[in-house]
């Protein structure tokens, strides 16, 4: 499983490179521009994938020789992390082929895998049971970005298939923002305030603000400020969880 996890980490940047060359069809940015939404982020935000892939590679290499932690959490998350990496890689060509329903299923499945890993490791870190930054930082960053990207993808599917009104997207977009906020706050609560997770999400939400504040779409400016509000609430929760919230016996370990 150690080697399989390393290979799955290598697979992601390899597939991303092939996708960038057009091997699977139009790149993700081109397809995304065809279906503008009120949740889409400015293009520069997606450069975070480079850092995500680099850190995942570092994690994959580190875990090959890592000793087992006392709680066995690294062993528990290895197959789940490998699945999340493979799903992340698979999403890129699937999206390029405009198989949107399948892409949506894949990105949510990938999020489930990486979020599980991030929660397990972040809780282990706070419990001081041997969770290593080589593990929890890469997986927290990956999970944080996917937590937002999954909702961006959901909005694009809605627009692509005209499942909801596309001339007035603010009502259902606000509902997606609310659902995203609920997921982000719940996950961050489980991780007791994960600053790496917060950083990835804040990066994406800031880019949503940049994109929507200059977008001509109806409701875009309101969506831009909703994104800022979600980021502010998540940051406040993280600060409270890390500095102000007393730990209870049941929350230790």
From TrEMBL:
<protein>
    <recommendedName>
        <fullName>Tryptophan-rich sensory protein</fullName>
    </recommendedName>
</protein>
<feature type="transmembrane region" description="Helical">
    <location>
        <begin position="170"/>
        <end position="187"/>
    </location>
</feature>
<keyword id="KW-0812">Transmembrane</keyword>
<feature type="transmembrane region" description="Helical">
    <location>
        <begin position="194"/>
        <end position="210"/>
    </location>
</feature>
<keyword id="KW-0472">Membrane</keyword>
<feature type="transmembrane region" description="Helical">
    <location>
        <begin position="39"/>
        <end position="64"/>
    </location>
</feature>
<feature type="transmembrane region" description="Helical">
    <location>
        <begin position="134"/>
        <end position="158"/>
    </location>
</feature>
<feature type="transmembrane region" description="Helical">
    <location>
        <begin position="100"/>
        <end position="122"/>
    </location>
</feature>
<feature type="transmembrane region" description="Helical">
    <location>
        <begin position="76"/>
        <end position="94"/>
    </location>
</feature>
<keyword id="KW-1133">Transmembrane helix</keyword>
<feature type="transmembrane region" description="Helical">
    <location>
        <begin position="222"/>
        <end position="243"/>
    </location>
</feature>
């Amino acid at each position: 499983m150690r080697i399989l996890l390393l290979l799955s980490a290598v697979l992601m940047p390899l597939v991303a490179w092939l996708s960038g060359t057009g091997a699977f069809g139009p790149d993700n940015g081109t397809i995304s521009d065809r279906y503008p939404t009120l949740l889409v982020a400015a293009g520069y935000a997606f450069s975070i994938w480079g850092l995500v892939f680099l850190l995942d590679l570092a994690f994959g290499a580190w875990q090959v020789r890592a000793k087992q932690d006392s709680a066995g959490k690294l062993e528990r998350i290895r197959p789940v992390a490998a699945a999340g990496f493979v799903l992340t890689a698979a999403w890129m060509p699937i999206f390029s082929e405009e198989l949107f329903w399948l892409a949506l299923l894949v990105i949510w499945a990938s999020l489930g895998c990486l979020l599980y890993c991030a929660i397990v490791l972040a809780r282990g870190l706070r419990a001081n049971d041997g969770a290593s930054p080589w593990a929890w930082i890469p997986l927290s960053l990956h999970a944080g970005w996917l937590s937002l990207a999954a909702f961006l993808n959901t909005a694009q599917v809605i627009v692509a298939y005209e499942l909801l009104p596309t001339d007035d997207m603010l009502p259902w977009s606000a509902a997606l923002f609310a659902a995203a906020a609920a997921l982000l706050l719940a996950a961050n609560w489980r991780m007791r305030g994960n600053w790496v997770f917060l950083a990835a999400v804040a990066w994406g939400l800031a880019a949503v603000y940049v994109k929507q504040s200059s977008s001509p779409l109806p409701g875009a400016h309101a969506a831009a400020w909703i994104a800022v509000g979600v980021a502010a609430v998540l940051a406040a929760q993280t600060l409270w969880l890390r500095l102000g919230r007393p730990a209870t016996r049941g929350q230790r370990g």
